[in-house]
Amino acid sequence: MSRRSGVLEFAVLGLLRESPMHGYELRKRLNTSLGVFRAFSYGTLYPCLKALVANGWLMEEPGGPPEGAPATALTGRRAKIVYRLTAAGKEHFEELLSHSGPDAWEDEHFGVRFAFFGQTSRDVRMRVLEGRRSRLEERLEKMRTSLARSRERLDDYTLELQRHGMESVEREVRWLNGLIESERTGRDRHPPGTAERDKQDQSGDTDGLPRHRGGSRPDPSDDTTT
Q1: Which of 63, 142, 168, 201 has its CA 20 to 30 A from that of 187?
Q2: Which burial class, exposed, middle or buried, applies to 28 when counting CB atoms under 10 A from its CB (0-12, 13-18, 19+)?
Q3: Which range is most confident: 85-99, 105-119, 187-201?
Q4: To the nearest whole percent, how much of the chain has pLDDT over 70?
């Protein structure tokens, strides 16, 4: 499975865990809530949905037309299909939520993972945030080294563009520092022996952090018938 299809699978399962949806509604949510998917099409979404159905993680049900769908999206049988998460799909999504390795820190994955932090345990949130910060600090150091070496050879506009890129990374690092501190403060509010409560985070408790339904980071980067 490619990195791109893996993050799409994760996002689809996460959104359908909230409620069943038509393909039209699901694509709209992916476009509006998770910015990394703004440019993707039905040709990308529906193979993913079919694969999830084949794996037993989703089920298809007949349903009425999605609210607000254009007339062109309502013709044909597939426009009436509702996708619902199965028990196996929920279990698979929770397993994916527990992953906190390097893939979760990368540009494309991190925004989507962050969008579902309300369903993620605090320990995993901390590992993802700290991993993301570490990755950006490494990137920032490389950018500074590169700029120092090439400064004399760059014109003013190229130099300003590189500075802008560095400032964007620096802002995200500061943002991550604040989130990590908030997570630690939230943890410190609980007495020892309450680690089991972390499991309740998956039902929506964010320990004081704002709910974030937009998948994009501070400085990251309609449907037809099926």
Answers
A1: 168
A2: middle
A3: 85-99
A4: 69
Name residue, tokens 């490494």: 138
Q: What is the pLDDT of residue 205?
A: 44
Give me the pLDDT at residue 64, please.
62
Contacts of 175 (CB under 8 A, 6+ apart): 217, 218
Both tokens assigned to 222? 């309609």
Compute the distance between CA of residue 208 and CA of residue 126 in angstroms, rounded to an integer: 14
As a whole number of angstroms, the distance between CA 107 and CA 50 comes to 26
Cβ atoms of 219 and 171 closer than 8 Å: yes
Residue with tokens 């943002």: 175
The number of residues making up the chain comes to 226
Class of domain 1-64+78-120: mainly alpha
Specify the DSSP element, H or E, that contains 60: strand 58-62
Distance, in Å, from the CA atom of 165 to the CA atom of 156, rounded to the nearest integer, reads 14
